[in-house]
Amino acid sequence: MNHYKNSLKIFLFCAVLVACQKDDNFPAIDNPIPLKPALLSGTWTTTKVVQFDKEAVDNGFPTDIQKRDITSSFPFTDYKIKFDVDASGKPTNYIVTPGNAPNFLTLNQGIWVLDDFVFATTLTLTNPADVNASAFRIKRLESNKISLQLVRNDAIDNTEYSYYEYEFTKN
Amino acid sequence: MQSIIPNIPITNMSSLKIKFAMKNIFVFVLFISALTTATAQIVVNVKAKAANNDDFISSVPSFSFTQSIKLVVDVSGVPNLVGIEPIYLWGFIQGCCGAPTNGDFCNSQSGVMTKESANVWSIVLPSVKAYMGVGFKQAKDAAISQGRPGDQTRFGFLVKRANGCSGGQSNDMAIPFTGPVYVKTEFETFPLNTGEKDVVTITYNQELETDAVMKTQAEVYLYATADLVGGGNVEPFTPVQVATTASLKLAKNGSKNTISFIPAKFFTIPAGKQIDKINVLLRSKADANINFGASQFIKMAKIK
Predict the structure, then answer these.
(1) How many domains does chain A have?
(2) Does B151 contact A at CB distance below 8 Å?
């Protein structure tokens, strides 16, 4: 009888371990956390950058063909971005401090906006004095971490060919 | 093929280098031949039935998601479509989506088919991928959600009058298609398409190298030039300089050698110019004149 009890305990322990495995693919937020701008207020530092090949993702190719962790290929952890909010908690200015990291944004400072203050999916960076803009897709938010995707589109046919997924940690 | 020849520094080449260049051209010709074969158009003949007689037609020639097909549909068995001209295609992937060009079911403006003979109509699709505007993974996910045997991916369609409402349509038909398959090659770029401000990673899978000398090299180096839009090229390091430049050495992990760079930083691009494509040769440390391995060029996307 004890043999069966021990087997059951081991099975339950394994089941809990499997259930608690972290998903490294940063799935879309199925039940979005209310993304109040105040949650983004402050300085964020890059802790991880993963590059994706859109075609390989679409084709369902092996994971190591779909994406590459390029964090250590360049000094990406130098990269910081600061989001400000006004007294009422609304987004105002942002400033990027790339350090020695590659910088894929077209504007290093300006204003930032969310497409929705409750269920935001896009964070856009603009500057009234410049026609250029950049936009991040918001993939995941934790208490002090956020994952943002920067999409690369072909200028000729506007198709998405690649995207970078940045994991930022709040300072 | 012409693009490869001028990018190898012929003026400094020994006869051995020319031999390797010829080998690369030969490989490229083989590649083009294989590509032509792989993209040959497939003709798919089906016989439509009256509406509400959904039909999965498995007995069609095998074709892939990225392959062009000519779909030939006999509507002689569909009373509401016999003698009607023209006939239109309405495409979909069940469990996923409709074709972006479907338009209004009651007033089609696109998808018009070509009359082959009385009550037989055809249309050429560049590929299911292009026609449906989705990736293979979406089609596969749809197949899984539908619980199809073997998660088989299928292209669904019907044919119809311009006004398909009020019974002016055939049955729903579906035909199977296969997906693109990843095949590991000697030389790979990541991502497949890239912009000059993107991170590009080159992988040299040495175990697939056919040259005996290159296959056993402990150290492999990158030699690259960039062709510019409108003519001209940039060579940041000559072949002789390459092996004495540590930053050009590929990182080795077993037989897998990789190097990452950002073209806009790696190449000094003249003001007002853009990179058209990048030409890459991988070489040994020992001798600047021989032992070139995989040769390939990288496609450049024009980023927004």
Answers:
(1) 1
(2) no
Triad B120, B121, B126: Cα angle to 5°: 145
A12 is a domain residue: no
Are residues A154 and B301, on separate chains, in Cβ contact within 8 Å? yes
In angstroms, the first-to-last Cα distance of chain B is 29
What's the pLDDT score for residue B287? 62
Please name each of the domains of chain B with its CATH number: 42-176 (2.60.40), 183-299 (2.60.40)
Domain span at residue A88?
34-170
The answer to whether position A111 is within a domain reads: yes
DSSP state of B300: B
Query: Can you give the pLDDT at residue B299?
Result: 66
Residues A73-126: pLDDT tens digits? 999 999 999 999 998 889 999 999 999 999 988 889 999 999 888 788 899 999
In the predicted structure, residue A12 carries a pLDDT above the cut 70: no
Interface residue B126 vs chain A (CB under 8 A): no
All residues of chain A having their beta carbon less than 8 Å from the beta carbon of residue B199 are 51, 70, 73-74, 102
Give the start-end residues of each E strand in chain A: 42-53, 67-69, 80-85, 91-97, 109-114, 122-127, 130-141, 145-153, 160-170
Strands B154-160 and B88-93: antiparallel
CATH at A131: 2.40.128.540
Ranges in chain B, pLDDT < 70: 1-40, 287-295, 299-304
CB of B183 less than 8 A from some CB of A: no
Tell which of A162, A163, A165, A166 to mutate to test the B interface (max B CBs under 10 Å): A162
For residue B130, the chain A residues in CB contact (below 8 A) are: none
Mutate which of B137, B183, B262 to disrupt the A interface (most A C-beta within 10 Å)? B137
Q: Note whether residue A14 is domain-resident.
A: no
Contact residues on chain A for B194, CB-CB shorter than 8 A: 161-162
CA dist., res. B8 & res. B233, Å (int): 11
Q: State the smallest CA–CA distance between residue B136 and chain A in angstroms.
A: 5
In a domain, A25, yes or no: no
In 3D space, the residue among A137, A138, A148, A151 whose CA is nearest the CA of residue A52 turns out to be A151
